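protien #1 (seq + structre)
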Amino acid sequence: MPIYEYLCTDCNHLFQKLQAVSAGSEGIRCPKCDGSRVERQLSTFASAPTSSGPVGAGGCAPSGGG
């Protein structure tokens, strides 16, 4: 199950909730003010570097004879 970020529109508190992909924001309450007006936020995720180099390194290995 993924972790989603929500923003409470009553108190502007940003919080995370572990829930199924198919679940909506119905019934989600803000843990700070107990408000029910929350909006699911687009969140970014990090990916770990691979053995070939850091993320975004270009993917081309340097040639051996140069």
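ok now protien #2
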Amino acid sequence: MPRPDRTGTPAARRAPGDPVPALSDITRFLSCPHCGGSLSLGAAVLRCGAGHTFDVARQGYVSLLGGRVPAEPADTAAMVAARAAFLDGGHFRPLAEGVAETAQHIVAGAVGRCVIDVGSGPGYWLASVLDRLPAHAGIAIDISKPALRRAARAHPRIGAVACDVRAPIPVRTGCAALVLSVFAPRNAPEMRRILGPGGALVVVTPTPDHLRELVGALGLLTVDPRKQERLEEALGSAFTRVAREARVFPLALARSATAAAVAMGPSAWHVDPAALRPALDRLPDPLPVTVSVEIATWHPH
């Protein structure tokens, strides 16, 4: 089984040009976004009993948006490439290990169900978790096609699915042993619905100190000081928080990694690229920054 490589990044599972992983391991967990029926996998197509069909992209993911237009814009190819470059640099390895350790403790013995990453991005966090859970398949859910193309190749047991995480999620009720939400939107009722008995939700959120040196120097978007309070409000109707752990560690980011950190997140929608380069050039190289996040485990009511 692939293990993290020397850079701290989950090792590349498939080289460009290799066959994409099949969706066969996760099809039984999916449902039709139109009628809710079970899906079966044919030749490059998913089909339900009512005749609704969904083509499998040649890059290995399938769209179950069902014609719905997402309420929020998807991450662009440039944002996804920047995120992949940053993660491949191993900068978040301690955080990935923390998420994987938490997942391993939760899922012990819950064989037969899947792990679902809601708002998965390129599949980095889910791949790290699956390395610890050899008996489980993973479903990477996102609305960004560039992200799903990468997620479909991030691990041999990941199936990538396009859907809007703020809408009904096209997976079967109670099919998940674990749901992940790492720096991603949350849909409490749907996350509760798809969790099976004994399952849990793991949520990773930044604190106001997260990357504070970079945020302050470049005037990037800040973390709302009420973020944890708002998280309690959003999840409290369906979940109870049972554990929380702070992860704080320093980084020294080279100029390219600093640029990727800006371009991979929500600040990318608000930063003028023409003004960014001179601002980056004025920063130290490497730039000392602080990673500060919380890993919380939530049990459904």
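The chain is about 30% helix and 25% strand.
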